[in-house]
Design brief:
Length: about 100
């Protein structure tokens, strides 16, 4: 049935905990890590660093992937977000780039 409807189940995992196999995200085939982030919270993409993936879409267990990674049915994903210091550093770099563009 899942293949016929082109749906995939993506399970989430928190750091240090086992995967939550009770409440998967149901997505269309070809869904990406970015789409999972948006379904969790709209601000998650701003804080996204990378994701760890277990399952058939990964080349090896706990593969580190980016937002564009396409997920397969029954993959497990752990999303790693930036900390406060990393966010502040990104903000500083952006401000510095904007000032250099304005001066030109």
């Amino acid at each position: 049935m899942w293949e016929y409807l082109d749906l995939v189940r993506v399970y989430t995992k928190k750091k240090g905990n086992p995967p939550d196999f009770e409440n998967p995200f149901i997505m269309r085939g070809g869904g990406t890590v970015e789409q999972v982030c948006l379904r969790i919270h709209k601000d998650m993409l701003n804080k996204f660093r990378y994701a760890l993936v277990w399952g058939t879409s990964a080349k090896h267990a706990s593969q580190c992937v980016g937002k564009e990674h396409v997920l397969d049915d029954e993959d497990v994903i752990q999303i790693v977000v930036k900390t406060g210091n990393q966010l502040e550093s990104d903000r500083y770099k952006l401000e510095k780039e904007m000032k250099s563009v304005v001066k030109k």
